Amino acid sequence: MRLLGAAQEGGSTVSECFVTVSRINLNERDSWLREWKRTADANHERAKKALSDGHLLTAKSNWLRAISYYLTAITDPSDRDAEDLLESLRRSAHLYLEHLTPGGEVVEIPWLEGYSLEGYFLPSPSNRGRSAVVVCIGEPGHRKEEFLYKTARYARDRDMSLLAVDLLGPDGGLRFGEVVGRPDLETAVGSILDYLLTRHDVDEERIAILGDGTGSSFVARGIAMDERVAAAVCDGGIWDLLERSFLRRRQPQQNEIFPPGRNRLLAQNFKCPVLITMGENGWLDADRVFDLVNQLRTNQQDVSLKIFNRLETASHQGHVDNPSLANEFIFDWIADRLRTSASATAARLTNPLQS
Hints:
By secondary structure, this protein is an alpha/beta fold. It is built from 13 helices and eight strands. The longest helix has 28 residues, at 323-350. The protein is globular, with a radius of gyration of 21 Å. The termini are far apart.
């Protein structure tokens, strides 16, 4: 479903998906990896041929599909063939970035001692002065390459820059096991913002963060700790609320590990508008989502909720059945909030006494 949904985003073609699946032998352990790699390699070679013939648009389309298929082939990063797949994945991504106009960059972002983050920075198409930027980051283990076909065009169509980043490090995840269990993953958000403020082409008043995928509460925690974000799309801390509720029900009353009201603390710290999107067919019941969001809406916090129902699609977990519909809504919301933020900043500068 994820791959078929990616077709409308340029991350696959329906026919290639079905042809590849038809070749997979479920009784053979390596068949899945081999067949998806075969399809990915074919797209990469088509891109190479198109580039040599001067057909850059076709080359870029094939690189994006190659990225998606290589991602599909990697089911176990520790597999003996995963290193070669990662190299091919990164090669396709780097070539795509190199041939954008204006060109994209592979950037390294300091985070922990001895462990940095890697990101792909795609400047706004107009490339004039300081632009708004959307930071796309997924839950732990999510690879940033997916954002190149999943969200990049929505930012670029709205003349915003995009920074795609993951927690896997510059080696593609070989040392990821060293950090995935840390209790302070949210500090990555602050490090990303520190990096963006060093760039001359980023408007520090118009930075948005998109935490892709539910279960990304480390993104929500990072946003709550930082005042530099103008708008955010994430789970709003719902995953944290569920974990606390789960643990509270299993603790003796006299040994309660969370004081009353503690589960609302995260939302009370949000300094920017927050959007939560869910699908009606997702892992959490829609009525339960409404209840949890009402808990988050304390102290007049600007928390918006959009639930996609099964009739309009985008209703499955992570909106995998129709990512286009979800991304249109999300990026329109981000654009509106960033305009509001820019207007408020302009008003403060024009009337400093009034502010």
